[in-house]
Structure formats: structure tokens, C-alpha cells
């Protein structure tokens, strides 16, 4: 049983708030991206998330390696980024947690397209206290991104809860002094957010309790 009074909340995006995928509206493009671009041994994704590549370069790379027309492929990509789904329930709970005086920071290893297309389309800048995207800082979570988020939140990691769907990332956060909960997906996330919200809004400001993974 994990019990805590978090003074700040960090939330991951992919797999935690959204399960959207690039080029998802095209089976051909999505399959090629999975097989060519997101292969475990490929280095382009890490470079992209560190800001060393732009989305246009990635689109051109996939177009040339997959034999697809670059212009329609780019439009599919941009439209997809702007239509990633995040449940209104998740966002409503984030707002309620912030209203309780708890900063909620979106911390994500992500690409320029997230800052350019996804976040504005979903209105995320007005919902979260801060958005800390690896591409904007040139480093991933394992390379110091959490420390940047800590400075922005104004709350020590020792009083911060992380919700993330990656076991290694949660272990890293724990090693840094924070407390994490490894969610199994977006549905699990809303359960934890609801528990946290109920804890913060109760008259006794009760302890948040849940079974740790």
C-alpha cells in the first residue's frame, strides 16, 4: 500500500494520458512507421526527442524509405498529431487537482510535433501548470528532465508523485527521491487521478492510498 500527501504531480503523456499513434489514420503509413522508424535498434526517435531532428525530416525519411508521397504523408501526420485523444475526464481531474493548490506538470519524452501541433490542439498549455517536453530541453527523462520539471514546479521531488506507464522511468524517479505509480494505461490513470482529487478535496485532506505496482 502506497500512502502519501503529494505536493506536486508529474504526469507522462504517451500511454498514460493518451494512446494515440502517429499516422494512425493510414494503415500503410502506420505499419511502415512501426517497422522502419520505431524499430528498437533505430536511433532517429531518440534524436527526434532530443531536438536533433524535426518532424519534417522524419516525414521525409519515412517517405523515402517507405515509397510514399511526402506531401500526403505530412498532412496525415499533422492531422493525426492534432487529433490525439485525451479523455475530458482526465483533463477535468487535472484542473481540479490544480485548484487544490497542487501544481500538475506534464513531463514527456516527446517530439517537436507535440509542442507544435498536439499540445495547442488539445489546449494543454492552459490545463497543466507546466509542460516539460524533452525536445525543448535537449534531454530525456533519464538525462535530467525530471530535475527541470522540479525547478519549474517549485516542489522537491521528495514531495512529488509521478504517474507514468514505464517501469524503468518510475524506478528512476524513485531513485531521484520521488514517489511513482506505474499505470497500466489511460484507464488506470483516471482511477489514480480521481483518488488523488478526492483526497485533496476531502475536509480532512486524507492520505492518498492505492496498491503499488
What is the CATH third-level topology name of the largest domain? Rossmann fold
Strand order of the largest sheet: 4-3-2-5-6
What is the top-level CATH class of the largest domain? Alpha Beta
What value does the Rg take, in angstroms?
18 Å
- Overall form: globular
Tell me what portion of residues adopts beta-strand conformation. Answer: 5-15%
> Could you state the order of secondary-structure elements as H and E?
EEHHHHHEHHEHHEHEHE
Residue stretches low in confidence (pLDDT < 50, at least 5 long) are: none
Biggest sheet features: 5 strands, parallel
The tally of strands reads 7
Distance between the termini: 9 Å
Give the fraction of residues assigned to helices: 40-55%
Kindly report the name of the CATH homologous superfamily of the largest domain: HAD superfamily/HAD-like
Average pLDDT for all residues: 91
Amino acid at each position: 500500500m502506497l500512502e502519501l500527501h503529494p505536493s506536486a504531480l508529474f504526469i507522462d503523456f504517451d500511454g498514460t494520458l493518451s494512446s494515440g499513434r502517429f499516422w494512425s489514420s493510414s494503415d500503410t503509413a502506420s505499419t511502415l512507421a512501426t517497422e522502419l522508424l520505431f524499430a528498437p535498434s533505430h536511433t532517429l526517435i531518440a534524436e527526434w526527442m532530443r531536438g536533433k531532428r524535426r518532424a519534417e525530416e522524419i516525414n521525409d525519411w519515412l517517405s523515402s524509405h517507405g515509397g510514399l508521397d511526402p506531401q500526403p504523408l505530412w498532412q496525415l501526420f499533422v492531422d493525426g498529431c492534432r487529433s490525439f485523444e485525451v479523455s475530458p475526464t482526465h483533463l477535468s481531474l487535472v484542473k481540479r487537482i490544480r485548484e487544490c493548490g497542487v501544481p500538475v506538470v506534464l513531463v514527456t519524452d516527446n517530439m517537436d510535433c507535440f509542442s507544435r501541433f498536439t499540445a495547442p490542439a488539445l489546449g494543454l498549455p492552459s490545463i497543466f501548470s507546466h509542460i516539460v517536453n524533452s525536445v525543448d530541453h535537449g534531454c530525456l527523462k533519464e538525462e535530467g528532465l525530471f530535475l527541470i520539471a522540479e525547478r519549474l514546479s517549485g516542489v522537491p521531488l521528495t514531495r512529488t508523485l509521478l504517474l507514468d506507464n514505464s517501469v524503468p522511468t518510475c524506478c528512476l524517479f524513485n531513485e531521484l527521491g520521488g514517489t511513482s505509480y506505474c499505470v497500466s494505461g489511460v484507464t488506470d490513470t483516471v482511477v489514480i487521478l480521481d483518488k488523488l482529487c478526492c483526497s485533496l478535496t476531502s475536509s480532512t485532506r486524507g492520505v492518498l492510498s492505492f496498491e503499488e505496482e
